[in-house]
Fold:
Amino acid sequence: MNQTPQDSTAAIRRGYLIAAGLALGVAVSNGLGRFAYALILPAMRADLSWSYTQAGALNTTNALGYFIGAFIALASVRKLGPTKLFIGALWITVAAITAMSLTTSFPIMIGLRLIAGISGAVVFISGGALAASLFPNDPARAAGAIAIYFAGGGVGLLLPGITLPALFAIGGDAAWPWAWLSLGVISGSVGLIITAAARRVTTAPAPQSEPHPWRKGPLAATFAGYGFYALGYFAYMTFIVAWMREHGASNVEIALMWVVLGIAAIVSPRIWTRSLAQWPGGWPLAGMLLSIGVGALLPIIDTSAWVMLVSAALFGQFFMPPAAVTALVKKALPPVVWGEAVAAFTLLFSALQLVGPVVTGAVADQTGSLAWGLGASGAMLILGALVSLLQPEPRKTSTD
Structure:
């Protein structure tokens, strides 16, 4: 039976709606489960009388969990399939976020942040494999679906950026449990949509026999470029608010910058979808890293409000490099190993993102200024862009 234009249009619309549903998984795992902590931390530290070491330990533990989660996904995504991993890890993340509102015990919070990091990485990786499975015979629309998926993190930045400051303005520092509870309720509500979307994706069947490992060599330049991305991007997210405060930025200016960051992440698929589909080899990743790198360097040149907004708009593309990597993996490798390959890239990413802020902070301590640290961060991103240009257009291979 031939497919009518109406059937084709409906299938395209359905594919993009599924991608949008999966994207909410990134909003939960990365936006609400990871980055929202930065907005709740000041209130928790004040109300619970934490030291800076304790406050930082929860973030470090979450990043360590992300690293462990990448290992788990790498080991299990091929055997269990991305759908089961995605749905299971999603609801573990929802539970960990919600449970933060129910305790004041520091050791329990450490455990919850570790769990959220582990499950969040599994959601991010397995969801990327699911998004790559949409539109298997349409490269242009497949690139769009992948971009939509990874841009979901922007929603996870925007929602707490809009709601939590108002909550703390009303309830003060003691309202931090309500902040976590609100994030848990939001996560659980959208979790139903995310689960329904994941169950509608058709993925490659698990192999009857264990295939040979896929080759990393043809993607070596992308591995290197992605490594520089991991080293460079998290320093901006860690220190940019401190940098703005040092230069007299108001709370309104900081909040506005955070909102622009989220909006930029949300609209980034409109900017990069055509590039993902049409640019060869490592050019899409290079373009993204150049944008992010320039955004990271602008605050060193000028800290005026409008420059910071431009910086946020450019840096807001930072959820797109995983989309470029996933699109390249889809071109280079058979479907059965997409999840495993994305997990390998995420493992590299999660390891090096632990190093980036430490290096930036050490440079700042040695020089007495965050300018040098942020400059080093931006330089790593620009270097990553240059290295990514060395990535040729891959030829699809089945195994090593």
Notes: The mean pLDDT is 85.
